[in-house]
TrEMBL record, chains A, B:
SnoaL-like domain residues: 12-110
Upper taxonomic lineage: Bacteria, Bacillati, Actinomycetota, Actinomycetes, Propionibacteriales
Protein name: Nuclear transport factor 2 family protein
Superkingdom of origin organism: Bacteria
Segments forming a coiled coil: none
Organism, as annotated: Nocardioides endophyticus
Length: 124, 124
């Protein structure tokens, strides 16, 4: 049985909150042990908790906030548009990817693919 | 070589314009001969021009308009959020899916997957 829409919505909310203010370990706990992350789509795929932790560890310690713009859940999968705003010095970096996620029966993320390109980063 | 970002952006523009005011044949011409359409995600996958034409033929003759909300192109693929507004009698049906598309080297669509659920249709 696929993860329920309610469960998927909860994971998306948790994911966006934790990318904004959580630790890499907390984010990794949302993923299956053999999950894959492709961020951005077209880059090397990271497989498993250690590689995924390394990816999110790069975000730790940055001053940032996140918010969900919109999501669509269908067939046990989700795509969602969200925004991550990072401040460094006197600059603000705003990136708003559309992420696609799949899940296993127990309700953890099995694949995450983030769609964004260089042109989607706004610096102000 | 994957389809270029420019070419993909052009296909998305054409697709949204033709879903709004084109014929099923014009839309089908954007697809590869053995392309697949899963709309919504989780429903039966339609394979090939005949099955895809049948799907879009159901939209012909409806009074409707479409607009692109936002798109993200990465790694030769695209996800895009758009809106389709259909009027029937005194009712307006607004659906805003997020579609995911892949392409072949010649720049035609090989897969289309539309993410939306019943809760994403607004009737006014």
């Amino acid at each position: 049985m696929a993860a329920s829409a309610d469960r998927i919505g909860q994971i998306v909310d948790d994911y966006i909150r934790l990318v904004g203010s959580g630790t890499a370990d907390e984010i990794v706990a949302l993923y299956a042990a053999d999950a894959t992350v492709e961020d951005p789509v077209g880059s090397d795929v990271r497989t498993g908790h250690a590689a995924i932790r390394e990816f999110y560890a790069g975000l730790e310690g940055l001053e940032k906030e996140t918010r969900l713009i919109t999501s669509r859940i269908a067939g046990g999968e989700v795509v969602f548009h969200f925004e991550i705003i990072t401040r460094a010095g006197d600059k603000t970096y705003t990136l708003s990817p559309i992420d696609a996620m799949t899940f296993d029966d127990s309700g953890v993320i099995t694949t995450m693919r983030a769609f964004w390109g260089d042109g989607d980063m706004v610096i102000s």
